[in-house]
Design goal:
The structure is a single chain. By secondary structure, the protein is α/β, with parallel strands linked by helices. It has 19 helices and 13 strands.
Length: about 450
């Protein structure tokens, strides 16, 4: 899975930037002088990388300017597992900041929102959320979070100039994708870029295909979580991601250095037209802005084509801003104002300036700027056509830890698609048992 923490780490790593957190004091014990008077609340950022730190500090400054009686103190936190543990510990001990930025989806569900978070269902901005985002920050009892940052998609990033030069159309079926790839190969251009030097990148033909799986069988995620026999990767429709991974290798459609190529160099190949298509998450587009800014609008996006049926774009939702149950009184009033402010016109501008939009927003009050990379418009079309679906991580807590290694074996000709899928089903079983999921 690609959680927000994963992509933040990827982007920060590719940017080659790391800074120490400049944390200001701030927990729920910050003072308030009573109803209507000056109030101080604390905001826990989504990490301590540059983008997370800038967004939180810019948000606090702008919010205070618009609400002079409320001061927001920002605190940063580690990324990854350390950050997850910090969030869970503070919630369980009643020491969480008044507002905190965190993941949506399965990691949000692990916070036990019904007992540890303030419900926000009745806030005016909830009506502006996309239905997909509501699913990732809510339970049967209510909605608990507002979005920050944009969505991003998994699928195929492609070089528009190469497609135009060769007279190719965006494929909607897998056979069309293979036909395009063979024409690209005949022109002396790498058809399908793979970058197994960064092992996580091997997963896109499977993870990016899940919206198609869900479209074919809307019950698949629930049955997968419940260990039903038909909802397995070794069976259709989920098997397609594995067979596609094998086919591009078998037909010699990949770059020769697929085993060692890194994501950053794969993006350079794509941007310059040395390679034409790259199965990838669009969150990495910000790195093209750093490495090849003149070529950023040469890159487009399309959903992974299917063996049959209309292709659907797989969407990763943004993280959420949440308020813990321990925030009450004047602080709760101020915290709700801050959460609403994130997706106000000023808050939307801050989100757009803090990073490069990698997809559409999950709330109608924020708009993607005209300066956004061209592929964002491609993503928007799938949203407008209602041809999207959530990534599996937002619908199930189960993912085997060895998927990337298994897919490298399939994508290198070491294992067949069927062998790899069966192996991954075993990996999923072990993980589900470790998590104590019922039915495994």
């Amino acid at each position: 899975m690609f959680s927000r923490r994963t992509t933040t780490r990827v982007v920060a790593t590719l940017g080659g930037i790391a800074i120490a957190a400049l944390a200001l004091a701030g927990c729920s014990s910050s003072g308030s002088s009573g109803s209507g008077g000056p109030t101080t609340i604390s905001l826990l950022a989504s990490g301590n990388d540059p983008a997370s730190t800038k967004f939180a500090n810019d948000l606090a400054t702008a919010f205070h300017k618009a609400n002079p009686s409320i001061t927001v103190k920002v605190e940063t936190r580690p990324g990854g597992t350390d950050g997850d543990n910090l969030v869970k510990t503070r919630l369980s001990t009643g020491e969480m900041n008044d507002v905190f930025l965190y993941n949506s989806g399965s990691l949000f569900q692990a916070l036990h929102p019904d007992t540890q978070l303030q419900p926000l269902t009745d806030e005016s901005w909830v009506k502006d959320l996309t239905s997909d985002f509501k699913k990732t920050v809510g339970t049967s009892k209510g909605v608990y979070g507002a979005p920050w940052s944009t969505t991003f998609n998994g699928g195929i990033m492609y070089n528009k100039k190469v497609y135009e030069k060769l007279g190719l159309q965006v494929p909607t079926t897998w056979s069309e994708f293979i036909s395009n790839s063979e024409k690209i190969k005949a022109a002396g251009i790498v058809p399908v870029i793979q970058s197994y030097g960064d092992t996580w990148t091997s997963q896109l033909f499977v993870l990016g295909d899940f919206a198609n799986v869900n479209a074919a069988d809307p019950k698949w995620a629930d049955e997968y979580t419940a260990n039903k026999p038909n909802a397995k990767y070794s069976k259709a429709p989920a098997l397609e991601g594995f067979t596609h991974t094998q086919e591009v290798f078998d037909k010699g459609l990949m770059n020769k250095d697929y085993a060692s190529l890194t994501n950053v160099n794969a993006l350079k190949m794509l941007a310059t037209g040395e390679g034409a298509q790259y199965p990838m998450i669009t969150a990495v587009i910000s790195n093209v802005l750093q490495s090849n800014p003149a070529n950023i609008n040469d890159i487009g996006y399309f959903a992974i084509p299917t063996d049959k049926g209309a292709p659907h774009a797989t969407v990763w939702e943004p993280g959420g801003s949440y308020i813990p149950k321990t925030t009450t009184g004047d602080k709760l009033t101020a915290a709700k104002k801050l959460v609403a402010f994130i997706n106000s016109p000023t808050g939307c501008d801050i989100q757009n300036s803090a990073g490069t939009p990698a997809g559409p927003f999950a709330i109608s009050t924020c708009k993607v700027p005209d300066s956004a990379p061209a592929l964002v418009k491609d993503e928007l079309k799938y949203q407008d056509d209602k041809k999207t679906g959530l990534a599996l991580e937002f619908l199930s807590p189960i993912k085997g830890p060895n998927l990337e290694k298994i897919l490298i074996q399939v994508g290198s000709g070491i294992s067949t698609a069927q062998q790899g899928a069966a192996l991954y089903d075993q990996d999923v079983k072990a993980q589900a048992q470790q998590l104590g999921i019922k039915g495994w």
